[in-house]
Specification:
single chain; about 300 residues; alpha/beta; Spore Coat Polysaccharide Biosynthesis Protein SpsA, Chain A; 8-stranded mixed beta sheet; elongated; binds uridine-5'-diphosphate; binds magnesium ion
């Protein structure tokens, strides 16, 4: 049997959202009259989400559970979903119903028109703190500016991807993943569809500041050398200033000025440059750590239980 749509939902402690997610996805997908499957990737949940996923799967064969051995993170969970998806079109959706399943119909319409990636743009966001909105907005704009690929702004992972593109992405096994960037990098015919991002149906965000920061670092290091180049720019600027100040100091001294005596100036200059050097070293470290992770060649995720990949 060929499957037209695969819906992927990563699950991390979404016990209360699962039945409603299933109900709404089923309602929407049944209305298309085409075959579909719902891949629920359990990202090491510590509530009873795992049991609930298995219960749902027993009742409805359209549900395919992929259970991780531990928490690997949202981007990796979605990656596993992409690996297991069999559909001609694959839809990535959040399990907390912030991305309304009804929007899938609009994404599918564009896909039928011939677009290979249809991403959903957050025209409006509800029920999120000002801090989340501000940091998200800054993040999208920063990434847009400094990365080498043009990643659409205000766009999350909610999107429909054609099989052709999924196959390409499944061959990209980088460890520190930023799927939106990878999705933009591959090219193909892409288009955005605006939607209203709802408040969470139940529960709290699973993306605390620390995880957001990690995602942002992966996005920047994965798609830009800009942080490495900043060190070079800084080096040129401080060397330039140093060279320019030499004649100023010499002439000043010959004229008997007192302006350049004192330890405070020396101390500030040394601390400043020391700081710049340590930061540059840290930036280098970020990239080297990522090289190390790639070289180790460990698997992206470990599954405890999963259907056959086919
Ligand atoms: N998620 C996951 N692993 C994690 C964190 C989150 O699979 O380590 C899932 C989560 O269950 C949800 C989706 O990723 O389906 C988006 O997470 P969340 O809604 O908490 O993020 P937000 O919408 O607040 O950015
Ligand atoms: Mg959410």
């Amino acid at each position: 049997m060929t499957i037209t749509y695969s819906i992927i939902a990563p699950i991390y402690n979404e016990f209360d959202n699962l039945p409603e997610l299933y109900r709404r996805v089923k309602q929407v997908m049944d209305s298309t009259g085409e075959t579909w499957e719902l891949i629920l990737v359990d990202d090491g949940s510590s509530d009873h989400s795992t049991d609930r996923i298995c219960e749902l799967a027993e009742k409805d064969p359209a549900i395919r559970p992929v259970i991780f051995a531990r928490n690997f993170g949202h981007q990796i969970a979605v990656t596993a979903g992409l690996d297991y998806a069999r559909g001609e079109a694959v839809v990535i959706i959040d399990a907390d119903l912030q991305d309304p399943p009804e929007v899938i119909l609009e994404l599918a319409k564009k896909w039928k028109e011939g677009y290979e990636v249809v991403y959903a743009v957050r025209a409006e966001r509800q029920g999120e703190s000002w801090f989340k909105l501000l940091t998200a907005s800054l993040f999208y704009r920063l990434i847009y500016r400094i990365t080498d690929v043009k990643i659409p702004m205000d766009t999350g992972d909610f999107r429909l991807i054609d099989r052709k593109v999924v196959d390409v992405m499944n061959n990209m096994r980088e460890k520190h993943r930023f799927l939106r960037g990878m999705g933009a990098w591959v090219g193909f015919r892409q288009i955005g569809v605006e939607y209203k991002r709802e408040a969470r149906f139940s529960g709290e965000t699973k993306y605390p500041f620390k995880k957001m920061l990690k995602l942002a670092l992966n996005a920047i290091t994965g798609f830009s050398y800009f942080p490495l180049q900043v060190a070079t720019y800084f080096g040129f600027v401080s060397a330039g200033i140093a060279i320019l100040t030499i004649p100023v100091v010499v002439i000043g001294r010959l004229n008997g000025t007192q302006a350049f005596y004192g330890q405070a100036t020396t101390l500030i200059a040394v601390l400043f440059l020391g700081g710049v050097q340590l930061i540059s070293l840290g930036v280098l470290g970020e990239y080297i750590g990522r090289i190390y992770d790639e070289v180790k060649g460990r698997p992206l995720y470990i599954v405890r239980e999963a259907p056959r990949k086919e």
